[in-house]
Amino acid sequence: QVQLVESGGGLVQAGGSLRLSCAASGSFFSINAMGWYRQAPGKQRELVARITSGDEINYEDSVKGRFTISRDNAKNTVHLQMNSLKPEDAAAYYCYAQIRRSSYYAYSTDYWGQGTQVTVSS
To answer: Taking the CB of residue 91, how many other CB atoms lie within 10 A of it?
Structure first.
C-alpha cells in the first residue's frame, strides 16, 4: 500500500506565505515524479508544480516566480514553498506521486493525497 500525507495548508492574508509538504510511505520500487495539483470550487483540477526523478521542474504559469517546488529523495518528500500568495491561489491542494511499485513490472501508477486547504484572504 502507498500513502501520501500532506501538511502545511492554512489561512493567510494576500502577500503571505505557506509551505506545503507531502510524504510518501509504503512499499515501492521508485518514485518517478512528485508534485502538486489544486482545485478551486467550480473549477477543474490543475497542475501547480511538478518535479521528476531527474529534477526536471514545471510550474503553472501563474505561480512562476512565486512558488518553489523541491524534493527530499531520502525522505520521499516533496515541498511547495508558496510566497506572495494571491486570493486566486485559494484552493484545495493535492499531492501526487508517480510511483513504480514493482522491481519486475516497469510501469507506474499515480497516487493522490487527501488534499490540504489553502485559503487566502484579502
So the answer is: 22
Nearest to 80 by CA among 40, 106, 113, 54: 113
Q: For 20-53, how does the pLDDT look when each residue is reduced to its tens digit (9 = 90+)? A: 999 999 999 999 999 999 999 999 999 999 999 9
In the chain (122 residues long), the average pLDDT of successive 10-residue segments reads 96 98 96 97 97 96 98 95 98 97 93 98 93
Is 121 buried (19+), middle (13-18) or exposed (0-12) by CB count in 10 A?
Answer: exposed
Please report, as a single letter, which amino acid is at residue 86: K
Question: What's the grid cell of residue 54?
Answer: 531527474
Dist. CA 84–CA 30, nearest whole Å? 33
Set of cell numbers at residue 87: 486570493
Nearest Cα neighbor of 95 from 17, 37, 46, 9 is: 37
Instruction: Indicate the pairing of strand 46-52 with strand 30-39.
Output: antiparallel
